[in-house]
Specification:
By secondary structure, this protein is an alpha+beta fold. It contains 3 helices and 4 strands. The protein has helices at 39-58, 70-78, 95-103, and strands spanning 21-25, 60-66, 82-83, 90-94. Strand 1 (21-25), helix 1 (39-58) and strand 2 (60-66) form a beta-alpha-beta unit. Helix 1 packs across helix 3 (95-103).
């Protein structure tokens, strides 16, 4: 008995857009009792370096964060992240920028 497969719709090559992926940073927080001791900066530096290392594996073109409040938005902006046009609590930075930052050894 011959198997029949459904017809697959073909897409013209010039109409295909490459998929874009981003690395999403989950919740990073430091207890208020330990604020100002550099723990948050250390966490951010570590996670950004990990994003750079993983970007090649997942073809990531950007790093995205979701700030939980205005204070968090300002914090991520101090790291060079830019708010999206649609929602200022979603901030992003290109992986190229993050790679250059990491290469400087900050």
């Amino acid at each position: 008995m011959k198997r029949r497969f459904p017809r697959i719709r073909t897409i013209e090559p010039d109409r295909v857009r490459p998929a874009r992926s981003a690395l999403l940073i989950g919740q990073l927080a430091v207890d208020h009792r330990y604020a100002g001791q550099g723990i948050g900066s250390g966490l951010v530096k570590d996670v950004l370096r990990r994003c750079v290392a993983g970007a090649g594996i997942v073809a990531g073109c950007a790093v995205v964060v979701r700030a939980i409040d205005a204070e968090a938005e300002r914090y991520w902006q101090s790291w060079g992240f830019v708010p999206s046009r649609d929602n200022p609590s979603i901030l992003m930075r290109s992986i190229q920028y993050v790679s250059l930052w990491a290469a400087e050894g900050r």
